[in-house]
Amino acid sequence: MKKVDVLIVGGGPAGSTCAYELAGKGLKVLVVDTKKKIGTPVQCAEFVPIQLTHTFGEFFPEKAISQRVYRMVHYTPWGEVVSMCSDGYVLNREVFDHHIAYLASKKGVEIMLRTRFLGFEDGVAWIENIENRKRMPVSARFVVGADGPKSKVAKLTGEHTENFLTTSQVTMPLCKNIEDLLIYFRDYIPGGYGWVFPKGKVANVGVGIDTAYNLKVTESLKMFMMELIRDGVVEEMVLKRTGGWIPADGLLAPIRGNVLLVGDAGGFCHPITGGGIANAVLSGSMAGKAILKEKPEEFEEEAIDVFESTLRRASEKRKRYMKSWDNLKEIIPKTWIAFEEYWRII
Ligand SMILES: Cc1cc2nc3c(=O)[nH]c(=O)nc-3n(C[C@H](O)[C@H](O)[C@H](O)COP(=O)(O)OP(=O)(O)OC[C@H]3O[C@@H](n4cnc5c(N)ncnc54)[C@H](O)[C@@H]3O)c2cc1C
């Protein structure tokens, strides 16, 4: 049996940040991830707020940054264009994610790729090498669930996310460079929105829709692409495709005995905007620091203190207003952060 102090399931920004905090402090730390290479493939529109670079500057080598942006410009179905400050970067996430894991491994963290967490048996975690199907028990004093929106660790230890946004994204050439993040609210993107996030000459173009609606997300994306091509925003060419799930229930119980949940696995992603990178890094860091003190309860306290009210407001709004998508002029100002009503009306 392999014995470690901390087993981290998932090497995305949440798991790798947790590993980074724990690294070089005399603990045996093991990260397992099903991927061949941390960070690849990217399933993200890649925007992070500038504040994250102030706290975690070492996570942002030059190559991790694709474009600086300053504003988010919203196109409403009733013709109003609303702009808000949104200072940050559109990343190259494959570089960003990989770099955090590299920093952790440089300080002694063991990373096992192509390795799947299977479950627990008698307090021991089981992992499997995906290539040769060899299984191995791992005994760990702490287990960190950083295994993303459909977290197995969360599912096996209690409360887990049940409501999601489903997304579909393509990378397309821009007709001309843009400096802002563009957000579109449309009747054919129910319970969500469309985005154009620029990366120099190309952009991540995607839609996220609430799974409550009976519409294929790829159909919604097709309509969005047609609108953008017609309006001369992007050229008719697809360079890459991706997609994924966004957890929409808000914060779950962050600790379950010796198991801590971070990032999307713990519901730290924003249930309306879908922004989850910064919260993944922050929650991973908080969990790592609490484990170092042997006080996981401090992670729970801090997570609730910092995130709960914001995430609860968003998940409540999703439940209350976003399950019907017919009076958009009323619904959108109540449910999107750029509008004063979002903050005024619960
Ligand atoms: C289309 C799309 C666009 C998005 N755009 C943005 C954006 O612009 N800005 C933003 O802030 N957020 C965005 N998000 C959300 C953001 O991507 C997530 O919040 C973020 O990746 C969460 O990080 P994480 O480390 O918690 O999980 P993940 O990045 O999902 O990492 C989880 C890791 O766990 C591994 N794993 C899963 N199961 C197992 C298992 N059983 N065993 C071993 N390993 C396992 C996976 O391989 C993966 O590497 C977007 C999401 C999607 C789907």
Question: Could you explain how this protein is built, in words?
Answer:
The chain is about 30% helix and about 30% strand. The strands form two sheets. Strands 1, 2, 6, 7, 8, 9, 15 and 16 form an eight-stranded mixed β-sheet that branches. The longest helix has 26 residues, at about 295-320. α1 packs parallel to α3 (about 95-105), α1 runs parallel beside α6 and α6 (about 275-290) runs antiparallel to α7. The chain has a single domain (about 1-340), classed as FAD/NAD(P)-binding domain (3-Layer(bba) Sandwich), CATH 3.50.50.60. The protein contains nine helices and 16 strands. The model has no long low-confidence stretch (mean pLDDT about 95). With about 350 residues, it is of the alpha/beta class. A hairpin with a 5-residue loop joins β4 and β5. The chain binds flavin-adenine dinucleotide (FAD). Flavin-adenine dinucleotide binds near residues 169, 246 and 277. Flavin-adenine dinucleotide (FAD) binds near residues 46 and 243.
Helix content: 25-40%
Structural class of the secondary structure composition?
alpha/beta
Number of distinct beta strands? 16
Bound molecules: flavin-adenine dinucleotide
Short description:
By secondary structure, this protein is α/β, with parallel strands linked by helices. Helix content is 30%, strand content 31%. It has helices spanning 13-22, 51-55, 93-106, 152-157, 217-230, 277-292, 296-321, 328-335, 340-344; strands at 2-9, 29-32, 47-49, 65-75, 81-91, 110-112, 115-121, 124-129, 135-145, 164-173, 181-184, 193-199, 202-210, 240-247, 255-256, 259-261.
